[in-house]
Amino acid sequence: MDILDIFLTASFWVAAVRIASPLIFATMGELICERAGVLNLGIEGIMTVGAFAGWVTVWLGGGLWLGVGVALLAGMAMGLLHGLLTVPLGLSQHVTGIGITLLATSLTYYTYRLALPQVTSPPKIEAFRPLEIPVLSDIPLLGPALFAQTPLTYLAFACAGLTAFVLWRTNLGVALRAAGENPAAVEAQGLSVTGLRLGAVVVGSGLMAVGGAFLTMSAFNSFFFEMINGRGWVCIALVVFGGWKPGKALIGALLFAAFDAFQVRLQQVTGGVVPYQVFLMLPYALSILALVVMSRRAAAPRALMVPYRAGER
Questions:
Q1: Beta-carbon count within 10 A of 34 CB
Q2: What is the tens place of the pLDDT at every residue in 64-91?
Q3: Which of 42, 47, 229, 264 is at a distance of 20 to 30 A from 3, taking alpha carbons?
């Protein structure tokens, strides 16, 4: 009964939504990139850059929303570099993405040590505070989880809705999806495949960086090494789990976050009988299982990771 009671506590659902928020940003960013035909394995490094850029902006005296904007721009800059190497130059998206991750993480850590050479404990900032929506936040169980979160959490869900709307309800979305399915048809319509793919990578990378900034400006109030902790790779898996559709990817992010929140509370219930490493493994093991089940029916964009040059057929 103690284990079942976990699901009946508001704190569990509050934690699940909070853990899912950075995943939602980054997953939507990766989904946009892949829908246009570009695999972005630089996501882990881009999230690290966003986490640091947002935190250091606020630490230097900037506002919280300015920090979000700086993180967005930093991610877009990394995305532009990745896009230039993979789209017009046609370099390997796997190798380039891993290179971006190594470059971004190393550059971030170097800048951190350069700015704070003698600091052993990272300085703290005043992070976003929960913003309760009147009446709705009083709903039992789900009220605190959905309507008493920080502004960045609300923005994450709005981002998922906007991504779905743009991709499936606008001409731009049709063109982006066509660039990932049949780029020759896009060129036949007089549109630039290079421009569409490059723009998708830049925008998607910006969202990934905002996901990283969430960790330093909403979940925590400081920056520390390894804080991304594989979340970028999880987001790549969530795109596959969702079948490259924003709605299903959103559900996948919430499920993973629920697994993560559950394992923390499960450790407390069992009282140390089971090694804690087993619980840390639980959300990843369940996610792999779900990924295996869902990916068998998922159809990736046909031109994903396929370089395209104007005039080719």
A1: 24
A2: 999 999 999 999 999 999 999 999 999 9
A3: 229
Question: Nearest to residue 72, comparing CAs of 85, 53, 91, 87?
Answer: 53
Give the distance, in angstroms, between the CA of residue 142 and the centroid of all CA atoms in the same chain.
Answer: 23
68 phi and psi angles, rounded to 5 deg: -65, -40
Q: Do residues 30 and 235 make contact, with C-beta atoms less than 8 angstroms apart?
A: yes
Q: What is the pTM of this model?
A: 0.93
Could you tell me if 18 and 179 are in contact, meaning their C-beta atoms sit under 8 angstroms apart?
no
Q: Are 31 and 85 in contact (CB under 8 A)?
A: no
- Specify the pairing of strand 148-149 against strand 131-132: antiparallel
pLDDT digits (tens, 9 = 90+) for 154-193: 999 999 999 999 999 999 999 999 999 999 999 999 999 9
Is-contact 13 145, C-beta < 8 A?
Answer: yes
